[in-house]
């Protein structure tokens, strides 16, 4: 999986890194955009979103065939991750002021592209490991 998974994560990251509106929408979809709409609008949106996840899963399966039936789960996680990382990589004015006031905190400021690529690489590796049955066993 190594190189293909890393490349897949890099291409996904590059494909969204400059699409600010898309990232804004993905970061707002569950918490804002799906609220205060009619059931018909919600259903239409959800069908379109599922179609996009299915398309992304097909691309993932094509480029990282080891994903097998985990490609859909990975695609859904990718969409959620884009929104989450985008939100965290765009700190509020108060947080920017905190970073300036305490430079030791600035190390925790997230760069969108680097953070997203790292997360997508990890998600892809985990999905492949699960598909191949090689994920680590944990004690409960």
Summed up:
This protein is an all-alpha fold. The chain has one domain (2-131): Tetracycline Repressor, domain 2, CATH 1.10.357.
What does this structure look like?
With 140 residues, this protein is mainly α. The protein has one domain: Tetracycline Repressor, domain 2 (Orthogonal Bundle). 76% of the residues lie in helices and 0% in strands. It is built from seven helices and no strands. It has helices at 2-17, 20-33, 39-63, 71-88, 93-101, 103-106, 112-132. The protein is globular.
Question: Can you lay out the helices and strands and say which pair or pack?
Answer:
Elements: H1 2-17, H2 20-33, H3 39-63, H4 71-88, H5 93-101, H6 103-106, H7 112-132
Helix pairs in contact: 1-7, 2-4, 3-4, 4-7
Features:
0% strand; 140 residues; mainly alpha; Tetracycline Repressor, domain 2
Kindly identify the CATH topology: Tetracycline Repressor, domain 2
The appropriate CATH architecture is Orthogonal Bundle
The oligomeric state is single chain
Provide the gyration radius in Å: 17 Å
Query: Per the principal axes of the C-alpha atoms, what is the gross shape?
Result: globular
* Mean pLDDT, all residues: 91
């Amino acid at each position: 999986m190594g190189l293909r998974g890393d490349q897949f994560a890099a291409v996904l990251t590059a494909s969204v890194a400059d699409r600010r509106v898309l990232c804004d929408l993905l970061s707002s979809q569950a918490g804002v955009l799906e609220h205060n709409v009619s059931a018909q609008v919600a259903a239409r949106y959800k069908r379109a979103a599922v179609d996009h996840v299915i398309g992304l899963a097909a691309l993932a399966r094509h480029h990282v065939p080891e994903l097998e039936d985990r490609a859909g789960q990975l695609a859904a996680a990718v969409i959620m991750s884009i929104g989450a990382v985008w939100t965290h990589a765009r700190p509020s004015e108060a947080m920017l002021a905190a970073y300036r006031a305490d430079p030791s905190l600035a190390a925790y400021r997230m760069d969108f592209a680097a953070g997203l690529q790292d997360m997508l690489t990890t998600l892809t590796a985990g999905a492949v490991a699960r598909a191949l049955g090689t994920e680590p066993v944990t004690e409960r």
